[in-house]
Amino acid sequence: MGPDDDTLAADGHWAFGTGFSDPLSGLPMPPAGADLAALCLALGDDALIMSHRLQEWCTRAPELEDEVALANIALDLLGQARLLLARTGRDEDELAFRRGAGEFRNVRLAEVPNGDFAHLVVRLLVFSTWRLALLTRLRDSDDEALAAIAAKGVKEVAYHRGYAARWTIRLGDGTAHSHERTRQALAAVWPLVDQLFAADGNPRSPDPADLREEFDAVVGHVLAEATLTIPETAAETAAERASRDEHTGALAVLLEEMQSVARALPGATW
Amino acid sequence: MSTFEEVIAADRRIEPRDAMPDAYRATMVRQIAQHAHSEIIGMQPEGYWITRAPSLRRKAILLAKVQDEAGHGLYLYAAAETLGVDRAELAERLIDGRQKYSSIFNYPTLGYADVGVIGWLVDGAAICNQVPLCRSSYGPYARAMIRVCKEESFHQRQGYELLMTMMRGTAAQRELVQESVDRWWWPSLMMFGPPDGDSPNTARSMAWKIKRHTNDELRQRFVDMTVPQAGRLGVTLPDPELRWNAERGHHDFGTPDWDELKRVIQGDGPCNAERVEHRRRAHEDGAWVREAATAHAAKAARAAEAAEAARAARAAEAGRSTKEEVA
């Protein structure tokens, strides 16, 4: 047995017993084109920043079961972020820790500060319903890596959406107090929805109108079960039309914390 | 049917429905609850660093670790519930200070090196304490410990690997690791509890085979295990009396500040108030959510009952019509 055989044997062993196989293992990775890199960066930043907001809930959940579930969702999104950022062809940590707020491409929905548990649940419902619609379509991408990342993500985000939907129904239908809090959370989150479906001019992005149709159907169904209605919103404002390089002040504050240790020790290895 | 004493003498397990002395039950509830509380409070000092982790890989490792701790807490509360206590009641006892948690979590985490040192020393000490508990006489606790120990062992390796990486990094990183070891070494030794001469519950717990080794035996085992790891890492343990004793076949080491341990256990450590206050706030902030879930479940149950009644009525009606037709 040569050294290569040893490596192969070791590779097979790390996932021993899981039945895991990686169909992309050893596949030559073509350089990401500009459109592909831009799409992966946007999807990766959404996952990274949304994961951060979920991480902030750690040790603050209303029940231990939710502590475990929220950490799980945060971990899934962090995993998606790492794969997607890697597919841009750049270093994940350079992207996460060395960019300023203006260089991030996440949607505003992911970055606004946390509110109460109703806000968390409604934001997660909107985010995961939209993201599941997106990833479902990207499973057919002609980039094999992106298609594989999307296929993995679909399984994860389907769980996230189910978790958020179940809690939206519990809170909306629960007590008068929880109903009112959830109504307020929906009113706070809803103005951030239109940005999710803005055309970005990237030929690789799925058709926003198609995504919106699925989104409206799913969210409408959940809200009806939760005895809630979609808030009346005024005509679209500039904030709603904002492109992905325009952020709220909250992103800079978030990044200051996220990048604090990495920036404090230049040249360090982790 | 074997008596409690026969089961203990034969080194078998006491199970939830078995007869057991009240004092054994009370001791097990106290110990398992304290262990569960330690997992939950222990999420705080490390959880603070998740959003600040310096690489995405370290972030994923730390997030998964803190999630494991929540899972251990759940698992252990479930083990405590087999003894007839309620999880909500145990949560109250933690918040109002009637039940304790490990004193180690009342020390602050000041930098990312602390994440590594907690993994190496604190989880290392926890493993020394907990591996013998896999053979503890109370079945549900012993079985819970098997899984907990596997995960703790993983955390300890991850902590040590972080420190190894930092020691290979810049001079500033090496200094941070040493500084962190200096702060955590003595509190880690205190995790085994007071010295044997000052540990009133040890004899009974050993007779009941809840505990398998004394505090001092476990402390010695931890020191012997850790000294070569410190050498390999390239850090100095802050104890001038620490040296190998060939005659004993063990390391000699200095005496921890037992007054400090007493103070921290009695609530006067650097972070006691902060840790419990954080837990209280999370618990109180979540009250309306738990109430909503209960209310929704009750409504759903009533709706299901009504639907079932309607279905039965329809079936009865259909049955009558059929009979009428036949008649």
Could you give the topology of this structure?
The complex is a heterodimer of chains A (about 270) and B (about 325).
Chain A: H1 3-14, H2 34-55, H3 64-87, H4 92-97, H5 108-111, H6 117-138, H7 144-173, H8 176-189, H9 193-196, H10 208-225, H11 238-241, H12 249-258, H13 260-264
Chain B: H1 4-9, H2 22-41, H3 43-47, H4 56-81, H5 87-95, H6 112-130, H7 139-167, H8 171-190, H9 202-207, H10 215-233, E1 243-245, E2 250-252, H11 258-268, H12 272-285, H13 287-326
Antiparallel strand pairs in B: 1-2
Helix pairs in contact in B: 2-4, 4-7, 6-7, 6-8, 6-10
- The CA-CA distance between the termini of chain B, in Å, is 61 Å
Question: What Rg of chain B do the Cα atoms give?
Answer: 25 Å
- Taken together, the total number of domains of chain A comes to 1
Count of DSSP strands of chain A: 0
Biggest interface: A-B, 48 and 52 residues
What is the count of DSSP helices of chain B, taking H or I runs of 4+ residues? 13
Which sheet architecture does the biggest sheet of chain A show? none
State mean pLDDT of chain A (0 to 100 scale). 90
Structural class computed from helices and strand pairing of chain B: mainly alpha
Low-confidence parts of chain B: none
CATH class of chain A: Mainly Alpha
Q: Assign the structural class of chain A, choosing from mainly alpha, mainly beta, alpha/beta, alpha+beta, or little secondary structure.
A: mainly alpha
- How do the strands line up in the largest sheet of chain B? 1-2
Shape of chain B: globular
**What is the oligomeric state here?**
heterodimer
Q: Largest sheet of chain B at a glance?
A: 2 strands, antiparallel
Proportion of beta-strand residues of chain B: under 5%
